[in-house]
Amino acid sequence: MKKQAALAMGAIVLAACASTGSSLSPEERLQLYRGNSDPVGTFRIDNRAGRVIHWSAINDQALTVMGFSAQPYLLELRNRCSGLTFATSVALSNSFGTVAPGFDSVQPLSAGRQASSPSCRIATARRINQGGLKQAKRDLKDSRDASLVERDPQAKPDDGKD
Fold it and tell me: Across residues 2-6, what is the average pLDDT?
């Protein structure tokens, strides 16, 4: 039951990230993830098949992934990955469930689970701090809300005469 709750929480965080992404450019989203994550040398995906439960392309060179552990990771690729932003699924190469940046890669897949593009080498992996990311999004929303100024309906247009 705890595992399901953790998985659901991770899915909510990734969904929130995706929904925030509509108001942020891909570069802003990438910076937000980088600022709320820590580099890792390797990470576990919990199975040898390389399946990830949730993933989201940020652009054609970065994506977030989450396996059964409900821990999301930011993966940045060495080069642009053709087909990543249009893929319906992704697979990660791995050694017995462990993904190692520099050695392993992301494979964009089409609807039929067939490779739709060549695999793309992972350059770096970062463990996303879900609490920090959530707070950063709240802070960003609050700062955007604070910058909105309501117009006084009684105000007259400035005619430039002083």
Answer: 46
In a domain, 17, yes or no: yes
What SS3 class is residue 143? helix
> β-pairing, 105-109 with 89-92?
antiparallel
| Residues with Cβ within 8 Å of residue 30, at least 6 apart in sequence | 58, 59, 62, 74
pTM as predicted: 0.73
Domain coverage including residue 74: 2-138
In a domain, 23, yes or no: yes
**φ, ψ for residue 72 (rounded to 5)?**
-80, 150
Structure-block tokens of residue 119: 């695999």
DSSP string, 47-62: SSS-B-SEEEEEETTE
